[in-house]
Design brief:
Layout: H1 18-29, E1 37-40, H2 46-56, E2 72-74, H3 83-91, H4 95-98, H5 106-115, E3 121-125, H6 127-132, E4 136-139, E5 167-170, H7 175-182, H8 188-192, E6 199-200
Parallel strand pairs: 1-2, 1-3, 5-6
Antiparallel strand pairs: 3-4, 4-5
Helix pairs in contact: 1-7
Length: about 200
């Protein structure tokens, strides 16, 4: 169970809406913003990009609209950037510490960095993702360290035969607030992971 929801009633996750869970996360940690960081890694089609962003934002809840903040990193140097390259860049994102509320105690700060999806996952948008409106969802925390016997028999995905390749494809309309609220729980990745080319829909 998440620290932010430790005092909630049994069945909290199954009996609340995604927007409620995000709102409770914000209140518990005193956060002023929520939303994934979006990396645009393909250029030359601004109309497609606008259409993609519209689809991405389709389901954001009106209760959270005022604090919804999704930095769009648009830079021609990102054109063609790989998923691993974006992972490294995201880890260096300079706003991590700047967004931590003043006065937050050290115990909560440690949990915040693990529980807030904003600090653990980002959206990688390449040409294929823009065409299909299915962004690549990067997990930027630790990679799956578990060794499974069946890993070696998995079809190769970008040179990896591991079951968990560290990213997955998510339908754009499923990202906010549904996937965002779900990934507050660190165990959710293992439970919901869809190995490419399968697509997660929430």
């Amino acid at each position: 169970m998440s620290l932010a929801f430790a005092d909630k009633r049994p069945g909290y996750f199954s009996n609340t809406k995604p927007a409620e869970r995000v709102e409770d996360l914000l209140k518990f940690y005193g956060l002023a913003k929520w939303g994934f960081i979006v990396y645009r890694c393909t250029y030359g089609g601004d109309a497609r990009w606008a259409r993609f962003m519209t689809r991405l934002n389709t389901r954001k809840d009106h209760l959270l609209r005022e604090v919804y903040h999704k930095p769009k990193l648009e830079d021609l140097s990102l054109d063609g950037a790989t998923r691993d390259g974006i992972r490294r860049r995201f880890r260096e994102w300079e706003n991590f510490k700047a967004e931590i509320p003043n006065g937050l105690d050290e115990f909560k700060e440690q949990f915040l960095m693990r529980e807030n999806p904003r600090y653990n996952s980002c959206i990688h948008v390449d040409s294929d993702a823009m065409e299909s409106v299915t962004p690549r969802f990067r997990r930027t925390g630790r990679t799956n360290d578990r060794l499974h016997n069946y890993d070696e028999s998995e079809p190769e995905v970008e040179g990896s035969r591991l079951y968990d390749v560290g990213w997955m494809m998510v339908d754009a309309t499923s990202l906010v607030p549904a996937a965002y609220s779900t990934f507050i729980k660190s165990s959710s990745w293992d439970r919901l992971y869809c190995r490419p080319p399968k697509i997660l829909e929430r």
